[in-house]
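tool_call: predict_structure(chain=1)
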Amino acid sequence: MPSGPSTAARTPFVLLVVLLLGGGLITLLLLNSSLNEGSFKLSELKKRTTELTDEEQELQREVDSRSAPDALERRARELGMVPGGNPAFLGPDGTVRGVPSVATADPAPPTAPTTSGR
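tool_result:
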């Protein structure tokens, strides 16, 4: 029985199978690396989202504290503004309703020192 022709016929088939298996392994390795890279990016983006959410909440608290009526009044007094007196209104025909008066500065009430986080 000659072994030469059957071995020669199997060589291309074995080589094809080895190349397919090697190519499949390399493809799986590249796919796995790509998924790991995406996972790291996702982790970094989640961390950044958390940081930005915390910063947004801190800024919102600051806006809320500066928008409070007592804070607005204090800042207005610092700018030299005074509370208005009785208002007067103009009607559509030009009539004045109410008695206009000049706003006068009352003595500023004593304010307690505030402690801010900044």
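agent: The first strand starts at residue 89 and ends at 90. Proceeding to next step.
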